[in-house]
Amino acid sequence: MSNDVVPIYIMGKKYHVPATLTILKAMEYSGYKFIRGCGCRGGMCGACATVYRLEDSYKIVPALACQTVVEPNMSLTQIPFFPANKSIYDVEELEPGTQTLLQMYPEIARCVCCNSCTKICPQELDVMDYVQAALRGDIEKAAKLSFECIMCGLCASRCPGEIVQYHVGLLARRLYAKYLTPKAKHVADRVAETEQGKFDPELEELCRMDKPTLEKRYAQRDIEAQ
Amino acid sequence: MPYEPYMKELIKKVETTRSARIQAAKEGKHFPRLSEADGMKLMKEFHPDYKEGTKRQLAVGPSKGKVVPNELADILEAKSSLNSGTVDLSRIDYDVDVLVIGGGGAGSAAALVAQEHGARVLIATKLRHGDANTMMAEGGIQAADKPNDSPPIHFLDAIGGGHFSNDPQLVKTLTHDAPSVIQWLEHLGVMFDKDPDGTMRTLHGGGTARKRMHSAGDMTGAEIMRTLRDEVRNRTDIQVIEFAPALELFTDHEGRCAGAILFNFETEKYTVVRAKTTILATGGLGRLHIQGFPTTNHYGATADGLVLAYRAGASLCFLEATQFHPTGVIFPEQNIGLLITEKVRGAGAQLLNADGEQFVYPLETRDVESSAIIRECSERNKGIRTPTGRFGVWLDSPMIEVLKGPGTVARDFPAKYRQFGRHGIDISKEPMLIYPTLHYQNGGITINSQAETEVPNLYAAGEVAGGIHGINRLMGNSLLDITVFGRIAGKSAAEKAKQTQPGEITLQHVQKFHEELKKAGVGDGRISPILLPDYVGKIG
Ligand SMILES: Cc1cc2nc3c(=O)[nH]c(=O)nc-3n(C[C@H](O)[C@H](O)[C@H](O)COP(=O)(O)OP(=O)(O)OC[C@H]3O[C@@H](n4cnc5c(N)ncnc54)[C@H](O)[C@@H]3O)c2cc1C
Predict the structure, then answer these.
(1) Which of A107, A151, B111, B484 is 20 to 30 A from B462 via CA?
(2) What are phi and psi of B326, to 5 degrees?
């Protein structure tokens, strides 16, 4: 791996950083101590939403600071917070109808299909498609297309319709999972059994068991085939 | 960074042995599992926990004499940043029934249930609500809810996985309540992987006797976390303060917990919270980088809860054992330490050395599996060297495509597929290079089945608590533990709050602890909790 150093611009200020670092590590290397803008450091939490521009390009490029390696002369800023509305609902009271998402988030009707959300999504999701699905009342499609959303908020920051896409997706997933997929019967059956105390005697016995007997039981347990 | 040419050469050896390995796997033949005794022997030689000079006995506090990693001892044997007098305790900013410290999975579950039991709840958390290890969990959550399975079988797996050190009562609660928390999550709208008829798709994990790993893609924790967080936000009577870590607990004159003092990260002002009962749900310690290992943990995993509880008089257990996850990324360098879920091995991927040969059964318990990898890369000298001089072994993900059909890797491991793809590595075609990474705390604050600590009116749930997993946790039992015990803590704390008058708030226990430190002659110059790791000016 090379020991090259590259210049980058953090909010307009120039720093020289090792070329192999991610934006997040490059900022720390340059002296930043994160309070906001840093969460899981593994690309799962959406805390480190970042946008940058490369020299000689007009394009704004989305990134997760923890996942993206620096490039020479990139000019970047993090967007650690962006105001967003969230509907308040009782999921028990909602019905998974074709109008539900629109009722909870009427602003989805303001989608002008400009595709800015899809273009900015660092997860490369089809954000506009799931907003359109939500608008049509296709909860399943909105749920599945938004599943990998990490709620970083970049989509909402770009939306001319002021839609908060990631909250729409979240509600779609909850509705889909709760109402539109069958409940697991084996789970309900087992819960009934545990509530009746079916396993209590055996669990009590295991709690009282001395270590050698436990060890033997453990070693002898049969293992379900892969 | 894509693989360098010399690495691509080595991958050819993996490809050479692949078809024979797949054939054997299809016939149900696998690399032999180690016996309990042989596993122990391997661990004693190669597991980082057994390395000399890396731990010491605590010189002060309720668990004085117990052995913990040096990095943890350093922050337990340290002073508070607060002295009585630093802050004005006469002005109470929040007066609540239940204070929940930590907005991860355990804290959110606790808050929901406490609210359902009529408590006025405040959640205080260090970063954003949901910036937590829970958000990162990939593989799944265990529960014995299939017809061929049962809570007692799950009990045996969990206690065997913990080498019989676990508190059996806690294991009983864990396994008994597991099906009902799965149902709770299902009803909240967690998008579990299911067959069209609603049957949960479940897999094996390391050390399981039944396929009981429930999942939501490879974002199981994120899916649980974002659902719980949404539910908390919908219950607008639950207050949430973000970027407000707890700096210290309060105790009253009888030593009962009476709330906590928070630190506003942005204004650097203190907030005084008086609470009838308090739940610690601050998660783990990965960012202490025990023995310099990289970690899978989120930015705020700095063991603050252990420090706070210890000063207030709670004992700690099983912290001598740290969990190293066998499969952390060792290349590309940018992703170092990040987790490759055990589900990849559950789906059939094998571990291979530089010769493309297997050297361990892929689903041993994590401690044994890690030891085998470390042996391969040290004593046996069969590791693969990275361009920066680290060593790892292959995790043969492409074989999943053959075993389970083309497209499986991208479909079942979308987050990993994308993460490697960003660096020019297609894990459906090329194996991953891995090495053990610091993953999980194992032990923690001593609790009972009601999630009570030894300090009256103080509860603990989640990774911060100890005993459930003894010295080694199985995959999928942590997401389970945080929901089971998070819920129990919420109920216990809310019920107790009904019978409790708010106490006087003092920092007496801190003063006493400082005196003890002085007497023992330790802790000078060290301040804790540390709140965040220090990577400034470094390559973190
Ligand atoms: C990468 C990864 C993958 C994993 N995969 C799995 C898996 O597949 N299955 C499984 O069962 N387990 C898995 N685990 C383990 C599991 O995710 C965690 O153990 C569990 O989620 C911990 O939950 P928690 O609520 O106790 O802590 P966390 O989720 O970490 O939450 C703790 C919260 O407390 C906050 N906090 C910390 N200090 C303070 C303070 N001083 N004041 C206020 N707030 C504070 C933190 O910021 C955080 O929000 C995984 C862990 C990681 C890191």
Answers:
(1) A151
(2) -60, -35
